[in-house]
Design goal:
By secondary structure, the chain is of the alpha+beta class. It contains 16 helices and 20 strands. About 50% of the residues are buried. The mean pLDDT is about 95. The structure holds ligand MV4.
Length: about 450
């Protein structure tokens, strides 16, 4: 390892996040390898990486999810580390293990930690042990309808059934009364068994109109943990986030401090290392309840980068190379101002129908307080096979009002022709009084459309 870092890093991903990782590697002076599917042959990550290798056809199962193809590419190009980005193999403990067995550093948590955070009721139990608030619920996996009925009676309806190996909203059932419970439980177990690695289901008190608030953290391999504030992610549709911001307009400083302190201890005890996100629901009283851990860099990480000034992807790489957080951060984290991210998707702004195709015209906004993370270029193609994210537009200001003003100005100056995008939708959201007032929850889009 020349310079004590990595010799070369392979990026097991595509699109804007592949470019984002290339940028961090360039800033560190580390050469990169892009892997790509046949659909991404002409993409910017392929152009800007030092080397590029085709790993298969368009379908992700045979390219970006094909572990043997990716490991072969890593061995041929003689890399010593792999960055998984988000999605695809980023939280695949088996992949992290294959990397370790192949002598390649997986830029993420240890495989055992990825596995244990992937078992949701176990993550819940660990958080409870360290004093992180959780919702009333089952102590572990439900043994059957009798246990479920007894617990639900004690907690009070409505309750929610969740798949142990689920997450991101899949495999959940809301139960409003006792008469529905046994049936719903067997449905949830069946669905979990068919969709995930396990049919296990657990139970929690259901919050009908929560806010979704998540804490960003960094943890090194030497037991140091830093919490980098939170992101408000309640503006979403069908579990797809549309707009994120930091800080949350709803989080009381006292709650932020109390939860951050508890989280720090829990993350330390788990042996977690990497960037990570801990998701919470906020109830109408403003209290937070843990729901799950995301053991990866997330789409919305630039919002935290804007307010903290920390390069989270660079930090991931330095952590994986064995550096300590004090070395990486060089001092205390002092959040500054307010940041908002709008996800610009290739989809119809009203129907949300996917809108892949050729970008025939493109003009990116810029100016003070604006960042654009994108793999889009004039005449480039957005293929139909992957998620529809085209660009992330991030606005930073001294306060929320200034961030909103800058975001509106940047949306007005953002031109994408040839495909439909969510730009018009974001303009409408930013003009909505309830949004401006910070008065919203996860039902905002549904209620409004
Ligand atoms: C909940 C909930 C209400 N009560 N849990 C959805 C994604 C998954 N990570 C957890 N989810 C939820 N869990 C309890 N006990 C409501 C949701 C939920 C949700 C959470 C965050 C963001 C958007 C959401 C949309 C619908 C439901």
């Amino acid at each position: 390892m020349a310079s004590g870092l990595f010799r070369k890093v392979l990026i097991a991903n595509r699109g804007e996040i592949a470019l984002r990782v290339i940028c961090a590697c360039r800033d560190l002076g580390i050469p990169t390898v892009a892997v790509y599917s046949e659909a991404d042959r002409n993409s910017l990550p392929v152009r800007f990486a030092d080397q590029a290798i085709c790993i298969g056809p368009a379908r992700s199962a045979r390219s970006y999810l094909d572990i043997p193809s990716i490991i072969s590419a890593a061995e041929i190009t003689n890399v010593d580390a792999i960055h998984p980005g988000y999605g695809f193999l980023s939280e695949n403990a088996g992949f992290a293990e294959v990397c370790r067995d192949s002598g390649i550093k997986f830029i993420g948590p240890k495989p055992e930690v990825i596995s244990s955070m992937g078992i949701k009721e176990r993550a819940r139990a660990i958080m409870k042990d360290y004093g992180v608030p959780i919702l009333p619920g089952s102590p572990g996996v439900l043994s059957g309808p009798e246990e479920a009925e007894e617990l639900a009676e004690k907690i009070g309806y409505p309750i929610i059934l969740k798949a142990s190996a689920g997450g991101g909203g899949r495999g959940m059932r809301i139960v409003n009364e006792r008469s529905e419970l046994a049936n719903m439980l067997s449905q949830a177990q069946q669905e979990a068994g068919a969709s995930f690695t396990s049919a296990d289901v657990y139970l929690e008190k259901y919050i009908g109109a929560p806010r979704h608030i998540e804490f960003q953290l960094l943890a090194d391999e030497h037991g140091n943990v830093e919490i980098l504030g939170e992101r408000e992610c309640s503006i979403q549709r069908r579990h797809q986030k549309l707009l994120e911001e930091s800080p949350s307009p709803a989080l009381r400083p006292e709650v932020r401090e109390r939860v951050s302190a508890k989280l720090k201890e829990a993350i330390k005890a788990i042996g977690y290392s990497n960037a990570g996100t801990v998701e919470f629901l906020m109830d109408e009283k403003g209290d937070l309840y843990f729901i799950e851990v995301n053991a990866r860099i997330q789409v919305e990480h630039p919002v935290t980068e804007a307010v903290t000034g920390v390069d989270l992807v660079k930090a991931q790489i330095l952590i994986a190379a064995g550096q300590t957080l004090p070395e990486i951060l060089g001092g205390p984290i002092v959040p500054r101002g307010h940041a908002i991210e709008c996800r610009i998707n290739a989809e119809h702004p009203v129907t949300f129908a996917p809108s892949p195709g050729r970008i025939t015209g493109l003009s990116l906004p810029g100016g003070i307080g604006i960042r654009v993370d994108t793999h889009a270029y004039q005449d480039g193609i957005i293929p139909p096979y992957y998620d529809s994210l085209v660009a992330k537009l991030i606005a930073h200001g001294r306060d929320r009002t200034e961030a909103i003003q800058r975001m509106k100005r940047a949306l007005d100056l953002f031109v994408i022709e040839g495909i439909h995008t969510s730009i018009p939708l974001h303009k409408r959201i930013l003009n909505e009084q309830d949004f401006v007032d910070g008065n919203f929850d996860t039902n905002f889009i549904k209620r409004w459309m």
